[in-house]
Amino acid sequence: MALLSVDELTVTFGARGRESKAVDGVSFDVDQGQVVGLVGESGCGKSVTSLALMGLLPDKGVKLGGRADFDGNNLLTMSRRELRDMRGSQMAMIFQDPLSSLNPVVPIGIQVTEILQRHRGLKGEAARKEAAHLLDRVGIPDPARRLKEYPHQLSGGMRQRALIAMAVACAPRLLIADEPTTALDVTIQAQILELLKELVDEEGTALLMITHDLGVVAGLCDQVNVLYAGKVVESADRHELFAHPMHPYAHGLLESIPRLDAPRGEPLKPIRGSINDRIAWAEGCAFAPRCDYYTMECLTGTPALTEPAAAGHQVRCVNPVREPVEIATLDAGDATVTAHGGKNA
Amino acid sequence: MSLLELNDVKVHFPIKKGLFVDRTVGYVYAVDGISLKVEAGQTYGLVGESGCGKTTLGRAVLRLVDITSGEVVLDGTDLASLPDKDMRTMRRRLQMVFQDPLGSLNPRQNIESILSEGMAAHGIGANQEERREKIRAILAKVGLPSNALSRYPHEFSGGQRQRIGIARALVLEPDVIICDEPVSALDVSIQAQVVNLLDELQEELGLTYVVIAHDLAVVRHISDVIGVMYLGSLVEEAPSDDLYAAPKHPYTKALMSAVPIPDPTVEEARERILLTGDLPSPANPPSGCRFHTRCPWAQPKCKEERPQLREVGEGHRVACHFVEDIESGLLQIGTERAAVVPAARTEQDAVEEAVAKSAGTKAALEAEDAEAMADGDADVTPADARSEAEAESETESGPAASDADEAPASDADETSASDADEAPASGADETPESAAPAETAPAETDPAETTPAETDSTESAKDSSARGA
């Protein structure tokens, strides 16, 4: 059985009559040692999903629906007390902005040992030692000195490492990373992604990766879920998804981003309109107003998740795209041949 | 002569201390001696990480910050020494598009007022009516409806606001537009729209751009020449195809290899140079070469002598003492400074199975195509298709096949059967084909043997330039 199994999760904000569904029936599984990606643009509900799983949404004005089973227990119906015991020890979260998620007036050391005290009962010297070991583990040089420093004294990459150290302090079985590298520079991003990969490989931690960056997904995630307007529109293994994106949105996204390794000079192929141009899922496909392939059939209720081509490749579209991404195939072909040649040489 | 020329431009911000009397205790060397040329009608891209001084340089060109020393020559006039009054009239020819489209538009002014303010200041259009006509034309050009005139910034989406920012620059008919992170605040699907708009406008109006961004893929897409900045100075400058194909400076190499590419196959076949540590403080820059503290190839000389930009190829300038030695392999990468993550990190069975599976699907598709073209008999086609398009996947699926001959073969069977009914033969042929590369695979995936990433990029660039020509 999957470690985390999310089934038809819905999150509704607002009072009666003026409700808006931020997450609209999202289902996915995360297995032990697996990296699962939730990808989408701003407003697609990816961060709200993670907050709902961690029980970090406010009680008032929020309605949760569906199930989220972590190890057989539904996270959504757990008491605050139970959740508090879970968070930090069983599941932990890494946030986007490391500066605003660390307490600015408390030294790093105290923030790390706090978790060790709460969940592992470590105190005094033992806790300090363990904290230093954790900072060392995530690649912070001179951990003993860093423990005494305040968040503003660390660089952005170092802060994110400290946050990761706090998240892995109790060897959680599930890590949720919400845009962990968005605020960082590319060279630092590469370091952090490498660290996350290591943690997953060595500790067998399950990782739920929330990001808008398809490049990050391509290098890290085993299974990818593409979200649009609160629903999963495509879900597949990463190789399958990048080779044959079938939902027009996923397909369009891959065609619209400039690639470092693609031939230059061609105009990009953007997706029309913006996320505001959408219809309610109840009336049809929310993506239809921006879609190049839409037919009248798209306006007759919510399309179901189906597996039109390969097993395990789910698409929520009545009219899925059959041709592969143009730029990507052209280039992937090139790259594979040259990589092969390069290795033989 | 170049339209815009920067000669040894320096911008140093004083660090002040003291309660009553400001004492200057030091300087932040934000921009520290930059010389570059921007040709008319071209796009010059400036890339670098946060804190490298790229934004300050852009603002210095417009004299939005004071230039400490050096020259900024626009069309023969040195802007750095121009009196403020003359500079103000000069700014019509130099416009800027800012990163945050909401923050750079006054929320209490409607679009007409925002766009006509600059025109009135520079005396463009005899009266408001004339200006309004012009604004309508520009709005149409940037893809906004003309009813936008009476609306306010908050009524627009992020992409539309950036279009307003571009329109504001365009109404003054500038020669040079400096775009500071023009798309980084926008969603991926919207980025492409704005990038295309910039491209179209350049073609139509013959504009010259200086694009400042941290996203290498975007910069490479729109720029003709790219300058890479590190800690206030240029470390490399090259035509954008060259820069990706053959980055010469160690920093550029690391930067290029760190940019994720949205393609799992390419990602796995790439080698990465992981830099350790962070950007040093520009208030206290390292001696000698600014990059020597993080450079995996650093030598004693780098600590003492600051390298100057020198020409190493056509239009390709690099500031590094040891470019040639690194190129020829005389200097080897020092592993204590940087971790090299070798290509093909697909040890896990799960990943391998996935690769084998997708390979099967793709092979089936290829087989379909090949069959349609009807060249060769059924026994050969799957092999051809695989060797041409799936060469990389083969090396990865190889070990999987040797581990468990049954599993990938049956996977491939399933997928090809469901995917391509017309090519039933391909499924049956899959078994010997996928087992065969297993013998050669281990030798090929030896990471120590070669540096595939480099050979890779050189060749793919050759390909792309060939395609361009």
Radius of gyration of chain B: 27 Å
Structural class of chain A: alpha/beta
CATH H level, superfamily name of the domain at 4-233 in chain B: P-loop containing nucleotide triphosphate hydrolases
The biggest sheet of chain B, with number of strands, parallel, antiparallel or mixed sense and barrel status, is: 8 strands, mixed
Number of helices of chain A: 12
The CATH topology of the largest domain in chain A is Rossmann fold
Strand content of chain A: 15-25%
Topology (elements, then pairings):
The complex is a heterodimer of chains A (345) and B (469).
Chain A: E1 4-13, E2 20-30, E3 35-39, H1 46-54, E4 62-70, E5 73-74, H2 80-86, E6 91-94, H3 98-101, H4 108-120, H5 124-137, H6 143-146, H7 156-167, E7 174-178, H8 186-203, E8 206-211, H9 214-220, E9 223-228, E10 231-237, H10 238-243, H11 248-256, E11 314-315, H12 326-344
Parallel strand pairs in A: 3-8, 3-9, 6-7, 7-8
Antiparallel strand pairs in A: 1-2, 1-4, 4-5, 9-10, 10-11
Chain B: E1 4-17, E2 23-38, E3 43-47, H1 54-61, E4 69-74, E5 77-78, H2 84-90, E6 94-97, H3 111-121, H4 128-141, H5 158-170, E7 176-180, H6 188-205, E8 208-213, H7 216-222, E9 225-230, E10 233-239, H8 240-245, H9 250-258, H10 264-269, E11 272-275, H11 300-304, E12 310-313, E13 316-318, H12 323-328, E14 338-341, H13 349-373, H14 381-389, H15 391-403, H16 406-419, H17 424-435, H18 437-444, H19 452-468
Parallel strand pairs in B: 3-8, 3-9, 6-7, 7-8
Antiparallel strand pairs in B: 1-2, 1-4, 4-5, 9-10, 10-13, 11-14, 12-13
Highlighted features:
heterodimer, A: 345 residues, alpha/beta, Rossmann fold, 2 domains, seven-stranded mixed sheet, four-stranded antiparallel sheet, 19% strand, globular, disordered C terminus, B: 469 residues, eight-stranded mixed sheet, 19 helices, 14 strands, 18% strand, nucleotide-binding (chain B), transport (chain B), AAA+_ATPase (chain B), ATP-binding (chain B)
